[in-house]
Each structure stands twice: as C-alpha cells, then as structure tokens.
Amino acid sequence: MKRLILLAGSLLAMFQVAAQELPKSFFVSAGIGGSIQQNDQGGSTKSFQISPSVNYLLNERWSLGLFLEHNRQTTETKMTSLPGSGGYYGGSRTYEIKNRSWTAGPQVRYYQPIVSKLFIFGETQAGFRAESVEIKESSTIYYYGGLNGPVIGSEKLNAESEATSVQVNVSPGLVYFIKPRFGIELKANMLNYNHGLKNSMTPDEDTESKNFNAELSLSKAKFGASFYF
C-alpha cells in the first residue's frame, strides 16, 4: 500500500514539469529491491536483489546494453510438536534455505514518452544464470517417560546443490528525469522464462526443468537510478 501511495504521489508531481527529451548517449543504471515476509511457522523469508547495467541509446526510443543481476534469499522455518494424548513424544525441527544466483547477458529497451520528463519503457533481458542452494536442517526428538527422565535425540543434515540455466525476463517500467542526465526508475518483472541446463541434484538422464511465469506486482518492483554520459 505504501508503494502505491508513493507511486501515485510521484506520478502527480511528474505531470507538472517542463518539456524534456531523452538524452542520446551511453548510460549506466542500477536497480535494487528486497523484501521480508513472515511465514505461518514463525520463520521468515528475506530477499535482496541488485542489478547494474551499461547501455547505449541507439536513438530516442531504443537502447541496447549488458546487465548483471545478483539475488540472495534466505528462508527460515521452525516447527514444534508437543507430546500428544497417545504418548509422550515431542520435538522440534528447524530449516534454513539459502539461495544465491548470478545472471548476466544482453538487454534491450524501448522508450515511449508520456509527458514532460516522464517515459514508460519495456525491457527484455536474456542471460546465463548460475544458482546455488544450501539447505540446513536440525531436528530434536524428546521422549518423556520411565524413571530415567527424558531421552533426547538430535540430528543435523546439510545439503548443497548447483544449477545453471538460460533465463529471459520481460519488464515494464517508468523513468523520470530529475535532471537532463539523471533519472530515477521503477521496474517490475512481468514475464519470466527459465530453461534449465544442468542441476547437480538431477540425474543425467532426466530432462532439465522449464518454467514460465507471468505476474505483475508492485511487491516485486525495483527502484533504481540511471546516469547518462
């Protein structure tokens, strides 16, 4: 809701400024995004993303460039079970999943002016993605009964995997020029296609995964800035 209010206020101010043309030059941009979400088990999911790029404006509408994107996500979950009426067993289990990825490749943008200093753009990125996943699990089991008190057993498991894929993203966005060579951006992924190349957890004879997602949500939007040389 806060993002919607901020976006509405920004758009209202943008519609009141003087005429401005898109600069014709090289430009660099950097976007950043992140979120913290609580889950039903009392844990949380924390994510962070940063995506710099270098681009060249072919004309007033089209640009071509190279991008690099880094994502980090950590999910923590804790489950506890108390002794039931049928016995004296109880326990707890904790999960921690760390996901890290790097994506790099070419990107192309198309700009469409709306009003003074304000442009809407469509962006397509196609890149090679390298991803790693680390899973840590810790469990403890309690048994209450007998003359010797509770018996406690515990176990810890760790697992790691790596994967590579080709990824294509299509994203709409807005750019507003505060100054002739400096703009602020708001961008949200809308379409995503991921074609798996290799996964260390997948047997060689199995088919690699192919995923297509379509979603447009401000909760996944990234704020950024662009500087034009």
Descriptive notes:
- Helices cover 6% and strands 68% of the residues.
- With 229 residues, the chain is mainly beta.
- The protein has a single domain (2-78, 100-136, 163-228), classed as Beta Barrel (Porin).
- Strands 1-2-3-4-5-6-7-10 form an 8-stranded antiparallel barrel.
- The protein is elongated and about 75 Å long.
- The two termini are 35 Å apart.
- The model is unreliable at 1-20 (pLDDT under 50).
Features:
68% strand; 6% helix; mainly beta; Porin family protein; signal; 229 residues; elongated; single chain; Porin
**Spatial sequence of strands, sheet with the most strands:** 1-2-3-4-5-6-7-10
Terminal Cα span:
35 Å
Supply Rg: 24 Å
The overall number of domains is 1
Main sheet makeup: 8 strands, antiparallel, barrel
Structural class: mainly beta
Organism: Pontibacter populi
Pfam family, one: OMP_b-brl
Keywords: Signal
Protein name: Porin family protein
